[in-house]
Amino acid sequence: MSSIFSKIIAREIPADIVYEDDDCLAFRDISPKAPVHVLVIPKREIVSLADLTVEDEAVMGRCVVAASQIAAAEGLGGGYRLIVNCGEDGGQEVPHLHFHLLGGRKMSWPPG
Ligand code: AMP
């Protein structure tokens, strides 16, 4: 299922891209929930965590390492949060797996 994120990968709609490699793309969330809010996505069209297979292990690892590198580049030395919303109950709205990298403020727990 193609989503708006596929259009960002294809450069059909603009985004504030902060990182790219062969497997992953990262760009600033259009509606940020923290001073730093970056979305890290696999370029492969994976709908959600529930759709992952063993073939996705390397790509998912690359995205997590990329998130760590982006957090450092964004100056989040005090900490940050990396979140994946999965499915309707998880609050996922865009059907293309994405990590939310949130930082720059103190996070509360538990999430809503
Ligand atoms: P989720 O609810 O986990 O599916 O998160 C989807 C996220 O995508 C939300 O935080 C939206 O603000 C963000 N978003 C939707 N469209 C765009 C876009 N065109 N560029 C950047 N972020 C977007």
From TrEMBL:
Keyword Hydrolase: yes
HIT domain location: 4-112
Residues at the active site: H98
Motif position, Histidine triad motif: 96-100
Assigned keywords, A-Z: Hydrolase
Source taxon at top rank: Bacteria
EC number: 3.-.-.-
PANTHER family: HISTIDINE TRIAD HIT PROTEIN (PTHR23089)
Listed name of the protein: HIT-like protein
